[in-house]
Design a protein that fits this description.
The complex is a heterodimer of chains A (539) and B (308). Chain A is α+β, with helices and mostly antiparallel strands. Chain A has helices spanning 2-27, 38-58, 83-98, 112-121, 137-142, 151-157, 159-164, 167-172, 198-203, 212-225, 242-254, 287-301, 316-321, 332-345, 381-393, 395-403, 453-463, 480-498, 505-518, 521-538; strands at residues 69-76, 100-107, 128-131, 174-175, 178-179, 181-183, 189-190, 192-196, 230-232, 259-261, 269-272, 281-282, 325-331, 352-355, 363-364, 371-374, 410-412, 417-420, 445-446. Helices cover 70% and strands 0% of the residues of chain B. The two termini of chain B are 28 Å apart. The model of chain B has no long low-confidence stretch (mean pLDDT 87). Classes of the chains: A alpha+beta (539), B mainly alpha (308). Chains A and B meet through α1, α4, α5 and α18 of A and α3, α4, α5, α12 and α15 of B.
Chain lengths: 539, 308
């Protein structure tokens, strides 16, 4: 009797263990109470349309805002200490204007990749979210995660935005001809800079670290004379391809063909900008690739970065700040804040910043690099749109969101500029995931900081360009399996090559090509070519 | 009479305390495992938020393809199973050995302290263990290499050496799990009737004889049941362990890649719920078959110890 019971118990236990796996896949989408009712949402959107068409007639004064609502807004990053104080002020204004307040929730950088898609599936009640072309915009839009913003809705609920939106931005935001995002109203340039130790430069007679050759001689001096320092500590997920990118882009920019990347980054597809046939090949098939890998191998063999770089979890900027490395590469926006904090902490390092573009024009970002979207199941999409209208276009609200409270976190310094006050540590300039509402009309640059920034900026402004396929959006519907398989290759073989970890570049490139072909590269490249031709025809 | 008509009702009444004790576990299993099992359909669907799990369109076996595309399905499946078998054997052996040693120890305080110290690693997160490993084996600053250089020897580059990783993984797995299993076996040893040992003592049995003829046979049912249960998870690589301890190192993937890490790398940036579910279903399906086979064998050999 007893042993039988015991067996029943163990049976139950076994069943429990067995099903754990199934739980894991089931629970990811369990909260389907709301999701599984397509009929319901249809009627909802129908009534929305009715509301939309009725609203202007019924109330000439504007949309109905008699009901007070609280909008939940998701941002990415860590909650700034003074966030609530800033939003109390924003909400004061919003309450008066549109009878709504915003409740901000943050998801940190370390978890956003997992959490972002989950909040769409979880059935949680929220309204507004930060999005971008690099931050799931296409993926979530094509999975119907966002509320469609029609031209009419824009004119009705966000008249200021309708007026100020750059027409190119509106066009870029289209996914299958529908817009799901309000892209930033701001022209942004991404340029890379080196940050080097002035004390070491003087010690070894290096005057500049701007071109690849100069960086090479600086790092060579470090590796020969400073055994306690790693010249540049790259290798983390964030910067594993930084040096590869600099070299490969330079080689391509200087070539006749002007080869550029196209499509999702995992598939390593490249195309020549001057080729109207849009012949797509793997970047590993261009001669410049082999030269780049050989140079990277040489640098790695000379000890410019760690032998264990591939398992780095700290990025090169963090390592530089911690005094473990002598050189760091970062984009100029990061450099501004890093420069300020490192100069304050280690004035003896005498850090200097150099343009790392090395003749390659910086990228004029697509407007989709930052934007705001509304959740497709938001209960108040109209009010959310109205709130976004104010966040973007009301100077006071916009400045509060972007820079904090005037007089506490910042002070105006003439037209279009500001000075940070000590309290800005609790609400830093332009680092509160406010990027989606940046607006050229109210933009202020920060004074002080990198001394040669103005000169570099001037040059970048003149040369910055967007490449031919910048706004090309690849629809991966038919090749998802291939892309998943290539994502795996990208993360292993490609990463190793990109950090120079190879004993025989030629053989390893051939191996990479073989694996890519097995994973279905040609099918993906053909699809990119097909869509690329359509893209060229439409533009 | 009543008992024969309604055996279940009778049993419920007679053993109500036991049934009550099993209730929370049963509720958890039903709520967390049986009901969500319907989510399996996700593996065959092209999921979108609008239509939800059940409304999204069917796509057949499309979600499984990527797994076989890069030719790594066999490698990762093999690694997963082999690692788990080795972990299972090594850990079970060490756990039983430690449990017997602890039970033979005389000093109560010393016994308790040893037990706690062994148990402690179970609570250390794999992220921290990964950091230990990195700081030990890092080529430039690692403790091992600093020591080797200090002693005038050649430093070793562990992170590019494929042969060292299986050893490292087996060692850290034992480091983390031996304490936990030891407690289970120790409990089972404590349950052995003390009179048997007394009788053996009177007959002049040595310590080895007592272990060989009393302790080991007495804990055999526990060993078999824990072994069978472990087989259910043999297709699941301990993701945290393989990811954190190796640092997702591409240089040694041939010997460290398991299904879970492979799937994570493929889908980290893709957000395809269907494909993830497909991988989970593949693992669960094979585990299910393995448990059936193992149980069948146990039933043939020792019918009393089979699970069902």
């Amino acid at each position: 009797m007893f042993s039988k019971k015991k067996r029943v118990m163990s049976l139950l236990l076994a069943v429990m263990l067995l099903t754990v796996g199934l739980c894991a896949c089931g629970s990811k989408g369990t909260n389907t109470g709301e999701t599984a009712q397509p009929a319901d949402t249809k009627t909802e959107s129908a009534s929305e349309e009715q509301k939309e068409s009725q609203a202007p007639e019924a109330e000439a004064a504007g949309p109905d805002i008699s009901q007070e609502v609280t909008l939940v807004m998701y941002l990415i990053g860590d909650r700034p200490v003074d966030n609530d104080e800033v939003f109390a002020k924003i909400n004061e204004r919003l309450k008066a204007e549109i009878n709504a307040t915003i409740d901000v929730k943050f998801m940190s950088w370390s978890e956003y990749e997992q959490k972002y898609p989950l909040i769409f599936a979880s059935g949680e009640d929220w309204d507004i979210i930060y999005t971008a072309d690099w931050c799931f915009y296409n993926a979530q839009a094509s999975k119907q995660g966002f509320y469609e913003i029609t031209q009419e809705a824009l004119e009705t609920y966000a008249p200021m935005t309708a007026e100020t939106m750059y027409p190119e931005a509106w066009e870029q935001a289209k996914v299958n001809d529908k817009v799901y995002m309000l892209p930033m109203n701001y022209k942004e340039i991404t340029a890379y800079v080196y940050m080097a130790r002035g004390d070491l430069m003087d010690k070894y007679g290096i005057s500049s670290v701007s071109t690849l050759d100069e960086a090479e001689s600086y790092m060579d001096a470090i590796v020969k004379n400073e055994p306690s320092l790693i010249p540049i500590d790259v290798g983390s997920d964030y910067d594993k391809l930084f040096l590869y990118d600099r070299m490969y882009k330079k080689a391509n920019w200087e070539s006749e063909e002007k080869v550029i990347a196209i499509g999702p980054w995992q598939v390593m597809a490249s195309v020549s900008e001057v080729d109207d046939e849009v012949k797509v090949m793997g970047s590993y098939d261009y001669p410049a690739f082999k030269d780049t890998i050989e140079r990277l191998k040489d640098w790695k063999d000379r000890g410019f970065w760690s032998k264990n770089a591939v398992v780095n979890t700290q990025n090169n900027t963090e390592s530089f700040q911690a005094g473990k490395s002598a050189l760091a590469m970062m984009n100029v926006n990061t450099a501004k804040s890093v420069y300020a904090s490192v100069s304050a902490e280690h004035p003896e390092w005498d850090i200097r910043v150099f343009d790392a573009q090395d003749g390659v024009p910086p990228v004029l970002n697509s407007y989709l690099a930052n934007g705001m979207s509304i959740f497709s199941k938001s209960k108040n999409p109209e009010r959310a749109l109205m709130a976004l209208d104010y966040l973007r276009n009301d100077e006071e609200i916009n400045s509060l969101f972007c820079y904090g409270i005037e007089g506490k976190h910042w002070e105006a310094a003439g037209e279009g500029a500001l000075v940070s006050l000590p309290d800005s540590a609790n609400y830093a300039y332009d680092s509160n995931c406010n990027w989606g509402v940046r607006n050229d009309a109210y933009w202020r640059v920060i004074e002080g900081g990198i001394p040669n920034l103005a000169d570099m900026n001037k040059e970048w402004q003149e040369t910055a360009r967007s490449d031919r396929y910048q706004t090309f959006v690849f629809n991966d519907e038919s090749v998802k399996n291939e892309i998943a398989a290539m994502g795996e290759i990208f993360d292993t073989d490609y990463k190793l090559l990109g950090l120079g970890f190879t004993d025989d570049p030629e053989a390893d490139i051939a191996k990479l090509r073989e694996k890519m072909e097995a994973a279905g590269a040609q099918k993906v490249y053909d699809e990119i070519q097909k869509q690329g031709l359509e893209f060229l025809a439409a533009n | 009479m009543n008992a024969r008509k309604h055996p279940l009702l009778y049993d419920l009444q007679k053993n109500r305390t036991k049934w009550l004790m099993i209730l929370p576990a049963a509720v958890v299993v039903i709520l967390m495992c049986y009901i969500p099992m319907a989510g399996i359909v996700l593996a065959f669907k092209e999921y979108n938020y609008h239509d939800g799990i059940f409304g999204s369109p069917w796509v057949g076996f499309k979600n499984f393809q990527y797994f076989f595309k890069s030719g790594k399905a066999w490698l990762t499946t093999r690694n997963t199973i082999l690692y788990n078998i080795v972990f299972l054997c090594v850990n079970t052996f060490l756990q039983i050995t430690c449990a017997i040693m602890l039970s033979e120890l005389a000093g109560k305080i010393f016994k308790r302290i040893t037990q706690s110290v062994m148990f402690l690693p179970y609570f250390i997160s794999w992220v921290v263990v990964g950091a230990f490993i990195y700081n030990l084996f890092n080529y430039e600053f690692g403790a091992v290499n600093t020591f080797l250089r200090g002693a005038g020897l050649e430093p070793v580059d562990v992170y590019s050496n494929k042969r060292m990783w299986p050893v490292i993984l087996v060692v850290v797995s034992a480091f983390k799990n031996v304490g936990y299993g030891t407690v289970m076996y120790l409990a089972s040893i404590m349950n052995i009737d003390g009179e048997m040992f007394e009788a053996a003592d009177l007959d002049g049995a040595t310590m080895w004889q007592k272990i060989r003829y009393i302790t080991l046979p007495s804990i055999r049912p526990t060993v078999v049941i824990l072994f069978l249960l472990a087989i259910g998870t043999i297709m699941k690589g301990d993701f945290q362990m393989f990811w954190q301890v190796t640092g997702n190192n591409p240089m040694v993937l041939d010997v460290t890649d398991v299904i879970d890490t492979y799937v994570t790398r493929s889908l980290l940036t893709m957000q395809e719920f269907g494909m993830t579910s497909a991988a989970g279903l593949y693992q669960s399906g094979i585990s299910f078959v393995l448990v059936l086979i193992a149980n069948y064998i146990v039933k043939k050999v020792e019918p009393d110890y089979a699970l069902f």
